[in-house]
């Protein structure tokens, strides 16, 4: 249970960090193919090594101007988080403490049925006066 709480806490921390941070993904395309992709910095453009490659298609070549394209995906940060204010008054705190204490103890079961007088013998009756006097309650 404790490890589950830690996993939930770390996942919530990561979610808040992802929501409150900003980053940019830069991509460089040549002939509609992804050549380079970079996160947080610029993608490298086509070098002479890329120009030296031969392309059988005449529609798009690396030497041709305007064939390469740069695209950027920007994820903006959101800083509109509100601070949680939690003020507890004394009577509310006492009520909550009492409520939870009684609620938890309400469902707490006993392991065995406890009979407090199980080990004691009944008192000795020297004479049964009702039978002796033949007085019966109807």
From TrEMBL:
Superkingdom: Bacteria
Keywords from the UniProt entry: Signal
Signal peptide: 1-21
Matches recorded under InterPro entries: DUF8199, HYC_CC_PP
Annotated Pfam families: DUF8199
The protein's name: Uncharacterized protein
The organism of origin for this protein: Salegentibacter echinorum
């Amino acid at each position: 249970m404790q490890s589950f709480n830690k996993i939930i806490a770390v996942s919530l921390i990561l979610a808040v960090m992802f929501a409150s941070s900003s980053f940019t993904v830069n991509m460089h395309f040549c002939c509609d193919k992804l050549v380079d992709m970079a996160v947080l910095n610029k993608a490298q453009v086509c070098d002479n090594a890329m120009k030296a490659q031969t392309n059988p298609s005449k529609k798009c070549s690396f030497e041709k101007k305007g064939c390469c394209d740069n695209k950027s995906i920007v994820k903006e940060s959101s800083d509109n988080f509100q601070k949680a204010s939690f003020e507890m008054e004394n009577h509310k705190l006492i009520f909550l403490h009492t409520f939870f204490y009684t609620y938890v103890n309400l469902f707490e079961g006993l392991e065995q049925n406890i009979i407090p007088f199980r080990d004691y013998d009944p008192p000795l009756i020297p004479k049964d006066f009702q039978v002796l006097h033949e007085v019966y309650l109807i």
